[in-house]
């Protein structure tokens, strides 16, 4: 039996940083069983939006609802949401195995699709390559036992075959999770996501209707 659907909506997010308006009247909706894409130019505020949805930014107003209930600090609610930042976040002195244990994820789950990384499970994070570290971080968040995950540039540093494999894992995990996917590999994002939002400079989201054409018109692609 499929688990009941859950919906996370964020609307009216307003964010000012250092006197600059970063986000205004942002709307975004995530639903378990769905991958939602988020595109936008460098500096448009995608990472800030994800951190705001987590409850990690000084947005000033209640704006995140899960199944119609306001949640003030979503990141504090067990089993609800996890966020993959662009920067490395796993303590380098931990082994890969210890990091997975800490997040409550079984390394055996990645053994079949990521055999090379699995073989490195007893190595410290600090001894992994840049791409291996990124892959470990992506899988840690993506396979966590939570309802929603926010992925900020999950394909960064990954080689093409690994990008394909991670895309397949994102699709697989989306059967039971709501996933927000942001990455400048827009073709991969468009191939995986429906709906797709574009964060306009000025901090408003637009839902794309004919994505490639819209992205051309918005000057995101040639
Ligand atoms: N703590 C902060 N204080 C002041 N300004 C900030 C802070 N964090 C981010 N910004 C600014 O907010 C804007 C949006 O940043 P953000 O990292 O969200 O962009 P992005 O869309 O994720 O960009 P990219 O595609 O380059 O990763 C940028 O202009 C950035 O300089």
Please characterize this protein's 3D structure.
It is a single chain. This protein is of the alpha/beta class. It starts with 6 loop residues before the first strand and ends in a 5-residue tail after the last helix. Strand 1 and strand 2 form a beta hairpin. The chain has one domain: P-loop containing nucleotide triphosphate hydrolases (Rossmann fold, 3-Layer(aba) Sandwich). The protein is built from 8 helices and 10 strands. The strands form 2 sheets. It has a 6-stranded mixed beta sheet, sandwiched between helices. The protein is 30% helix and 26% strand. Bound molecules: adenosine-5'-triphosphate. The site of adenosine-5'-triphosphate has 11 residues, from helix 1.
CATH architecture: 3-Layer(aba) Sandwich
Strand adjacency order, main sheet: 6-7-8-3-9-10
From the 3D structure, determine the CATH topology. Rossmann fold
**What is the CATH class name?**
Alpha Beta
Can you write the helix and strand succession as a string? EEEHEEEHHHHEHEHEEH
Q: Helix count, per DSSP?
A: 8
Mean pLDDT: 94
Choose one word for the global shape. Answer: globular
Backbone structural class: alpha/beta
InterPro entries: ABC_transporter-like_ATP-bd (IPR003439), ABC_transporter-like_CS (IPR017871), BCAA_Transport_ATP-bd_LivF (IPR052156), P-loop_NTPase (IPR027417)
Domain ABC transporter: 8-221
Family: Belongs to the ABC transporter superfamily.
Protein name: ATP-binding cassette domain-containing protein
